[in-house]
Design brief:
By secondary structure, the chain is mainly alpha-helical. The chain contains three helices and two strands. The protein has a two-stranded antiparallel ribbon.
Length: about 90
Amino acid sequence: MRGATEPAVRDITSLGCCNGSAETTPDRIALIAGVPDPDNRRSGLYAELYAQALRTARRCASFEPGERVAIWAHNPRVIMVEFGAAMRASFW
């Protein structure tokens, strides 16, 4: 069984997608916290995601190439840390 062939698969990383979306569509929703109560759901824009990831990357400046980062979290902030760690790795 084969999957769909359209749309074509893009050759881009999740960090590249975040950066590109922050440039082209900064005011679009990037994330929505998937909590059961709709009144408690928070959302974030691509510009906010990029800015928070950049802050996280700067805070990771003391890490050396090859060091590992462990994350133990179950909230939307974990996404910021993941993007920030990837962004920091791209600075080297």
